[in-house]
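Sorry to interrupt, but I need a hand with the structure work. Go ahead and set the record down below:
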Amino acid sequence: MEKSKRISWSILLLAMPVMFMVSGCKQFLDRKPLTATLDDLNQGGIEGQVFGIYSAIKDYDIGQVFGGIPWQGVHNFRSDDSQKGSEPSDGAEWVAPFDNFNYVKDLWATNFYWDAHYSLIHLTNTALQTADSLHLVGVESEANLAEARFFRAFSYFDLVRTFGDVPKIDFRIYNAAQANIAKSPAAAIYALIDSDLQFAMANLPLVWGNKYPGRLTSGAARALSAKTHLYRGNWSQALALCQQVINSNQYSLFSSYYGIFKDAGENCSESILEWQNYMGPNRTDDHGSWYATCQGVRAANSSGWNLGWGWNTPTDAFVNSFDAGDPRLASTVLFSGQSDDPSTGGYGGTLPPYPAVAWQKYWNKKVYASPEMRQSTGWLDGAYWINQRVIRYADVLLMAAECLNETGSGTQAATLVNQVRARVSLAGITYVDQAQMRTAIKKERRAELGLEGERFFDLVRWGDATGVLGPLGYQPRNKLYPIPQPAIDRSNNVLVQNPDYP
């Protein structure tokens, strides 16, 4: 499928009234308010602003928080499946908070994570206010509004499960003082998420067709809503949403597990939500992201294996968690000093040995760039063109299985789990009792969704985080991160720190 047609086209960037980027820990309102050129919007509604939101979520600045190193720290390093990685001296300050749970109130990564999420929320609120001021109606405009509200819900879901109570800003900000409000209870944030996703489900199309691969659909809204309900233990609501996705017949498990993560597997039958990236030959038409580059194999330049920055590397615990014969291990992990295994997505190379040349024992194979693409794009030490798979159909099947098991339908749960296992030719699991099936589902999620940002949040919502992560330093208070101190300082203490972090 031609990436040049994706919604990250440069023409779409030009359609935005104003696009802002954040740099470092710059506060998100330290800029002019977004001002729409309303005369230019009469023909296309707010589509230009909405396309700008798509671009923002994976660009080189705000996008770091939705796939780059700050995202990796919050969503991956805190699990038992991955760690900071890279050279020991590279980003050494990230080890204590993310690998060892010594959270820091003023850290570039989490300050940026907070600010960039509110930057994206600011974009969505501006688009929604613009549409309201123009009294836009019709199917096209409603779809644009649904896209904006999806992104707002997506941003708030990250914030509420990372920080807990946060400020609820569901209106357009014209000056910084308007954003200086107290935190709202997590329940109020979830109520906004539910409302936004209900609107998105009702007004997004089931499909857009080949013209807009990666554009939000009602299926994506339902899958995200299911995940938010799963996180709250709302089993019946989450199950109903998962079943709607399954019964839509729009998705199916891709035939090859490792193939999902190759260039040819982008936007495949399993893709429900996927951030689109592109880079043309010789670094032209660059609309990529840091997602894959920040995780690429890192070794001495002389080895020819300096393919990225080497962050988010698998742990021994993760490697040892797979059952014997599970091909997902070799499809997920690259082993230093060993063949990249072409039968599970490699390209016929042998990785340099650890520790003599390579910086780590293992690497994330799901972002392993093809030599052909690296040569074509001219990025020999990066992989900016690789799409980020955000929600896959396998995740929906496993969410549905978990809901079924928790509501007394364990045999049906086993059927869904076995669909996922059959894709990688593993024997099916027979339902014995709820506890046995619960354990099986947890194990299956770990193997199937490894290094995709789910494990830490799964452990927290299951109540397993203290038992599993305790040896790494985790304490019950670590389920939430402290509110960034710079945000509190800017608010003149209108924002109050989380109670476990005096």
Remarks:
- The CA atoms of residues 417 and 444 lie 8 Å apart.
- The chain is about 40% helix and 5% strand.
- The beta strands are 82-85, 271-275, 311-314, 333-335, 362-364, 388-392.
